[in-house]
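> @MW can you paste both from yesterday?
MW: sure, first one:
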Amino acid sequence: MEKIEVYIDGASKGNPGESAYGIVILKDKKIYIKKGDFIGITTNNIAEYISLIFALIECLPLKNQEIEIKSDSLLLVNQINGKYKVKDAQLKILHFIAISLISRYNKIKIIHIDREENKTADKIANLFIEKKKNLF
């Protein structure tokens, strides 16, 4: 069984500012899903959480496979993995939703990667901020 790789990114021009998310899901090392959207005015951390939540929803049909979600947000990864506490009230809600979705998966990891490894998801998020509409 091939591992599913998922790259996620949330972007915000200003903090808070115009924001969007981008996700890329690779199945058998080929693009399976590539999507994102403009999400309005919010913070980069909220945009990161929204990218994770949308990735988790998109991957539900693959929940029995090994899934590795990769993010360049150290805060997101460490909060989801229980290394950091979630203090912000809005992030607590998004954290609860993400953890609830994660519980539906059989084998899933959320890992931190360098920004350079996350260029495609970052590009998608930033395109949606520029266009302020759905591109796909």
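MW: second:
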Amino acid sequence: MDKFTAFESHVVPLPAENVDTDQIIPARFLKVTDKNGLGDALFFDWRYLEDGSPNPKFVLNEPASQGAKILIAGDNFGCGSSREHAPWALTGWGLRAILSTSFADIFKNNALKNGLLPIELEPAVHAKLMRDVQADRAAKVKVDLADQSVTLPDGSKVTFQVDPFAKRCLLEGVDQLGYLLGFDEQIKAFEARHDAL
């Protein structure tokens, strides 16, 4: 996992509320244990028409969405079943942060463990930002995890909360196992002392 550094990006607006994990990545794509290629299946049933061609009316297919690292979605994003494939698909498409007013707990935890930052915004801030990025698809937002802040297109800054351990792992670019492996020398020293007793 790459270290999570501050970045600026234009934003994909998806105003739908209660977007569940089956809409993010349909169940038929869950037969894999490898993350590669899951970005192609992101929002598959919304993104593609029945003949398999891209749906020109879906926001991810719009030219203005290409290269975006931030998605702003409606309330209760990531509800439904527990599947790590949902953040895998989102990051596989290129997203690094999701902005919403709330997230399902399991999705939020899975996202944080897989390099995707879920950011909860106050409803009034969220509503204004949604309007702003829908009106100007080139509008940029800056996400700074170290500072726990989001800089909006008008230059104003809002802060957000994040679990301290998840923040540390994201900033260091490690998952939970990688974090533990960082204590390898201390573990060996402890075991050597323990064995000597």
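> thanks! Residues 123-135 form the longest helix (13 residues).
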